[in-house]
Amino acid sequence: MKRAPSAAAAIVAARRIVIKVGSSLIVGADGRPNDEWLDGLATDIAAMRRTGKQVLVVSSGAVAIGRRMLGRGGPMRLEQKQAASAVGQARLIDAWARAFAPHDAPVGQMLLTLDDTTHRRRYLNARATLAALLDDGAVPVINENDTLATSEIRYGDNDRLAAHVAELAGADLLVILSDVDGLYARDPNADPDAEFLSVVETIDAAVEAMAGGTRKDAGEGAGGMATKLAAAKIVRAAGCATVVARGEGRPFARIDGGGRATLFCADGSVEAARKTWIRNLQRSGGAIRIDAGAVAALKAGASLLPVGVVAVEGAFQLGDVVVVEGPEGARIAKGLVAFDADDLRRVAGLASSEVAAALGYRRRDAVIDRDDLVLTE
Predict the structure, then answer these.
(1) Residue 287, Cβ neighbours under 10 Å: how many?
(2) What's the DSSP call for residue 216?
(3) Measuring CA to CA, which residue among 56, 55, 65 is closest to residue 24?
(4) Binning pLDDT at 50, 70 and 90, where does residue 103 land?
């Protein structure tokens, strides 16, 4: 996505958007899902999907809904929050499904823990599931798996979760909807005349200092402006821009009409950031030798398929970094492999249509997807 001059322009230009929705928007004062607001957001998302955009939702609210259903008031212990999440999550995903039903958009639920985005094998599996949901026309609705997550494997807040989902999905825009309308130079609660920043080109110490004190009451959620800025920093390095906007009413219509929102610009493109990350990975789990036809296909921008594999060296696992060599042993590429070494040996040289019979199960076609591969020649 090219750098946009405003939040509205960034939304128009984006091809894959992650929308993070805070608890204060989803859950009403009565502890029930705010169905009217959800219907409005689903209508806006459906309109974006009709223009060819792919949209994912990171949704807070399960604990807040479950708290009411279980009749719990006041502070809760960890296990009580986890129980509330277990009860509330079912009601939450039902509310999303009903909101999207008039638009014939199926909803797919994914519950993640930090391990799912930091362990390479689980990262690749989660990414493949998200890609399949999007390819099938579903709207992924993602939340942290609070029923299992402990402090050691938690994201901490759903702003950071949304940032990691944006990385996982290869999104070019993260939109954080909450009860703040963006970034101010000073605390607007203390200074009503504080300057509003509509575009932030870089995130430095001066910008980080502005993030303090822009929210007095966190309500049911765990995040304030500081966590939104942290999320913007995470995705910026991955080539993804961020929009922070007030979510009440019809937020996308308001932004399109010139309403306040802050755009945090990306540092380069999603594709370039990912390729740089792969290129800088040092440790190699093994090597894959390929034939001349596969070499030509990779140079033309294709994925590596089993039919082009001649030999396999090493004992690598799915998700490891491997070197790709040409027929004479020259290194031509490196990438994240989608097969274990033993399975790849079993299917080397086979057409994609023969792989399932050789392995005994159906799996993804590519040995290394073109998005996970960089040429080194």
Answers:
(1) 17
(2) S
(3) 65
(4) very high
- Model confidence band, residue 290 (pLDDT cutoffs 50, 70, 90): very high
Give Cβ neighbours of residue 113 (< 8 Å, ≥ 6 apart): 144, 145, 148, 149, 153, 154
- pTM over 0.85, yes/no: no
- For the cut 80, the answer to whether the pLDDT of residue 273 exceeds it is no
Distance CA 238, CA 183 (A): 21
Residue 293 exposed, middle or buried by CB count within 10 Å (0-12, 13-18, 19+): exposed
The confidence score (pLDDT) of residue 155 equals 60
Distances (CA, A) of 277 to 202, 280, 281, 374: 20, 5, 7, 10
Q: How many residues does the chain have?
A: 377
Count CB atoms within 10 A of the CB of residue 365: 16
Place of tokens 């999907």: 49
Compute the distance between CA of residue 37 and CA of residue 248 in angstroms, rounded to an integer.
8
Degrees to nearest 5, angle at CA 192 with 190 and 197: 105
Beta bridge partners of 176: 20, 244
Q: What is the pLDDT of residue 149?
A: 61
Summarised one tens digit per residue, pLDDT across range 218-231 is: 334 444 788 899 99
Taking residue 117's Cβ as centre, other Cβ atoms within 10 Å add up to: 19
Distance separating alpha carbons of residues 13 and 15, to the nearest angstrom? 7
What are the CA-CA distances from residue 358 to residues 182, 202, 308, 312, 361 (Å)? 54, 51, 16, 16, 8
